[in-house]
Design goal:
Elements lengths: L2 H19 L3 H6 L1 H13 L1 H4 L3 H13 L1
Length: about 70
């Protein structure tokens, strides 16, 4: 396997992993109950969850809506 193939494989893996863990902000906008559950969950565990993608997305949507 050549170096360029290894780099391409690593890049593709990183991009796919980022997509899998990134929550859909549109989902939170469409499902207010799920948004509120996630906001409460994140705020109750702020120290541990503040930097996770689901919490960041939920808190961002919550700030935009309310």
């Amino acid at each position: 396997m050549s170096l360029s193939n290894v780099i391409l494989l690593m890049l593709a893996s990183t991009l796919l992993a980022g997509c899998a863990s990134n929550p859909d902000i549109g989902y939170y906008r469409a499902h207010r109950r799920a948004l509120m559950r996630e906001v409460v969950h994140c705020e109750n565990n702020e120290g541990a969850l503040a930097n996770t993608p689901p919490c960041q997305a939920a808190l961002r949507v919550n700030a935009q809506l309310f």
